[in-house]
Amino acid sequence: GIFLMARATETINIFQGNVVAQTRADLIADGSAAFGLSYDNSLDEGKVALMSSLLLASNTDFGNPLSMQIDYSLLPKKQVRVRITSKRDFWFSQPGQASFFQISKEAISKIISP
Q1: How far is Cα 32 from Cα 45, in angstroms, rounded to an integer?
Q2: Residue 28: which of 9, 6, 46, 51 has the closest Cα?
Q3: What crossing angle do the helices spanning 45-58 and 2-36 adopt, rounded to 10°?
Q4: Tens digits of residue pLDDT in 9-38
Q5: Other C-beta atoms lying within 10 Å of the C-beta of residue 91
Q6: pLDDT beyond 80 at 62
Q7: What is the pLDDT of residues 85-99, one digit of tens each?
Q8: What is the spatial distance between Cα 24 and Cα 41, in angstroms, rounded to a whole number?
Q9: Angle 87-93-94 (CA atoms, 0-180°, nearest 5)?
Q10: What are the angstrom distances between the C-alpha of 6 and each of 45, 94, 95, 107?
Q11: What angle do CA 42, 43, 48 make, to 5 degrees?
Q12: Separation of CA 93 from chain center
């Protein structure tokens, strides 16, 4: 019974890591696209970089560090692509097994002109 509970709990840990990484990627992509929008309906690289850094810093859990990559080549197409990688510890690591796992999630926000 204890072994089954440990496996179920670890599955919840992995699922929670996926949800957190995807939510952060969505938040950063949407917030950066909204803040980076210029008056001429284009995305400003400096504003996108600033807001994405601020959002990453304010949403980081120090127990589970996040790293971020932004694809700036999509800005002329009015898109912000963000990849978030989260490093999380296994709650029940076994000897000889890695003590952490990584999750990468991606989000793309596209500005649609009316």
Answers
A1: 10
A2: 51
A3: 150
A4: 888 988 988 998 999 999 999 999 999 988
A5: 11
A6: no
A7: 988 888 777 777 788
A8: 25
A9: 140
A10: 45, 11, 15, 31
A11: 170
A12: 24
Which 3 state secondary structure label does DSSP give 68? strand
What pLDDT does residue 58 have? 87
Say whether pLDDT at 114 is over 70. Answer: no
**Phi, psi of 106, rounded to the nearest 5 degrees:** -130, 145
Strands in 1-114 per DSSP E: 66-71, 79-89, 100-110
Distance separating alpha carbons of residues 43 and 2, to the nearest angstrom: 53
Local structure of residue 59 (DSSP, 8 states):
T
Tokens of 94: 């076994």
Model-level pTM greater than 0.70? yes
Chain-wide mean pLDDT for the chain?
A: 88
Cα separation, 94 vs 47, whole angstroms: 45
